Description:
Blueprint: H1 3-11, E1 17-21, H2 25-35, E2 47-49, E3 52-63, E4 66-76, E5 81-85, H3 90-99, H4 107-144, H5 156-191, H6 197-263, H7 271-274, H8 278-300
Amino acid sequence: MKDDSKKFFIDRLPQPWVRLMENDHERVKKFQEATGVTVDPEERSVLEENGYLSIPVDQVVTEGNKYRQTRILMVLGKDILVTIERNRLDSLDELNRTLALSPRLTPIELFMQILTILNGAARNTVRRVSMVLDGYSQKVVDVSGGFETHGKLPGVADIADTVVALSEAEELVADIIEGQLSLARAARWIRRMVTDPQMFKRIELLLSDVESLRRFDHFQHEKIRNLEESLMTTLDIKQNQITKIFSVITAVFTPPTMVGAFYGQNFSYMPELTSAGGEWFVIGLTALSTAIPMMYISWKGWMR
């Protein structure tokens, strides 16, 4: 790094940490000219250039009730740490205020602080997702259990809306898992550069925490899969119920339809026409032809 650029980036700062925004093209260009480091927002690999280590880290950020995946490019040098954020992170704002009152740290110590903060933010995001999934679990129970409070049987549209919401949650959890993998990769790269035993223990602790959170992410992912399978099974059952109802209706009303069709013929002679009880005979025959299939279906338990 040139002396004048090094003075601009380091000497005026309480900590050897420079935060840049990806859309601040002028400052990013100046940084590239000063360090010779290539800044590619879409690059996923870890790069070593001119004595600098560039590590991209993915992160899911929360904006109200919405979630968005973002990326931070962390460039570690011997005397400086530069972070290039796609979207400004509140967690790093808080860390920046805290570091303003702290003793001057080394770039590797700052790197570890940022990874710890990002892991904590990911933990909070997963907890919020877990609470949302608990709500979906209850909704799946309501949909699968028959009638809702307004007395109507939940239909395909109700289940479809829940399936769409679960699909979005599944994609979100997958993004969080990807972020945890990138955090673990960054920590392992830093572990190669650490010689202090205390710092090495901190990195091992961070890796253990990242791994445990990643397992929890996988648990949430499996929970979503189970809910989706439960909904699809419920949808199949409800469709079979609808088919069964129409089949029963057809079976019940086919015999009286045949009776009506028989007596609707224009025969020249029908004894029931001259009989005083002919009408009641036909009515009773129709009722009997309806009752027998109903009794048989009820006995077999096909309407349950």
